Amino acid sequence: MTLRDLDAPFIGAFLEDLETLRSASVRTRNLRLTAIRSFFRYASFEEPAHSAQIQRVLAIPSKRCDKRQLQFLTRPEIEAILACPDRSTWLGRRDHTLLLLAAQTGLRVSEIIDLDRDSVMLGHGAHVRCVGKGRKERSTPLTKVAQQALRGWLNEPRKRGATALFPNTHGGKLSADGVQALLNKYPNRRASQTKRHGHQTPSEPRRYPRGGRLRTDLPHRTPRRVSTRC
Q1: Which pTM does this prediction carry?
Q2: Taking all residues of the chain, what is their mean pLDDT, rounded to a whole number?
């Protein structure tokens, strides 16, 4: 196969095959097209004799796809989720502290699981220090409620000398899948409890009674993802 064979109809047929026969998503199709465009931009400098063919390939458009847009949990939703972990157990106290810290700071999952015990500074100017995208270090202030929860958590006996702030039961670092599992577990548990008892679910904040008191010590809203048309 030569460059001459890779014309626009051939590339178009390949992209169509991805979606129809291989059941690839539109997003995957667009990623493949991006890689193809990168190659043909390189080829435009190396093979100027094929410039017309290359331009036709580069003119193949991307398809519209679902774009994830950040929205937010409401304060009642945060309260409901934070109330789910059983704080009479070690796991429950760990999960509650992790969720509270995530809600208050907005740290990424990768940043939370990389925190160690030395990342938390309590007392005057309390903050948590993390290394984020681009290996950039940043510090995020902590509320009094978060300080209290973290102080209690740091006084817990360590699991096998763990240095991670939120270790697993074996003393190692939590995985991203482990955090995702607990993020799925507690909202689902809360939903099943409210359905069983006939109360409001976290997905129905507008049904909370007017004038109901909300805890003002809870932090700012936490992002969640939804899909919209782009």
Answers
A1: 0.57
A2: 81
